[in-house]
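step=encode ok
step=design start
structure_in=
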């Protein structure tokens, strides 16, 4: 937003082998560095012909848990940060690490990728809505 508080992020990842996606579906994502047991649902923002999975993620949290650091101006969540905030923080830390390295080869060797697990995709697809057999 205009104050610099993180409100959204785009995540792209390679499509796992055998993973077929369509518009209107969702996946569950687990990031072990955040939680070893929590799975969170996200809608797919990528199309069936894309060679990547894209998620548009809103960084959520009640106004009461957000606090802005007076010196740095950076926003953070106090007292039980949300999963989406922790995910944003993990991504930001990796981006900052990569920005400090000017050589792309050193970036790949030095900065570990953010490991995650996917379940899905789930949900009905809209592909049958144009099939005459399903029109009312």
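sequence_out=
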């Amino acid at each position: 937003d205009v104050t610099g508080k993180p409100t959204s992020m785009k995540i792209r990842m390679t499509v796992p082998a055998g993973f077929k996606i369509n518009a209107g579906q969702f996946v569950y994502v687990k990031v072990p560095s955040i939680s070893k047991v929590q799975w969170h649902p996200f809608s797919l923002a990528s199309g069936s012909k894309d060679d990547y999975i894209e998620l548009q993620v809103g960084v959520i949290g009640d106004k009461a848990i957000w606090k802005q650091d007076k010196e740095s101006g950076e926003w953070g969540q106090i007292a039980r940060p949300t999963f989406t905030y922790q995910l944003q923080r993990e991504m930001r830390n990796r981006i900052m690490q990569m920005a400090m390295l000017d050589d792309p080869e050193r970036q790949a060797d030095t900065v570990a990728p953010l490991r995650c697990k996917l379940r899905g995709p789930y949900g009905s697809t809209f592909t049958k809505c144009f099939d005459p057999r399903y029109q009312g």
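step=design ok
step=annotate ok -> The beta strands are 8-14, 26-30, 40-43, 52-58, 66-68, 75-77, 117-122.
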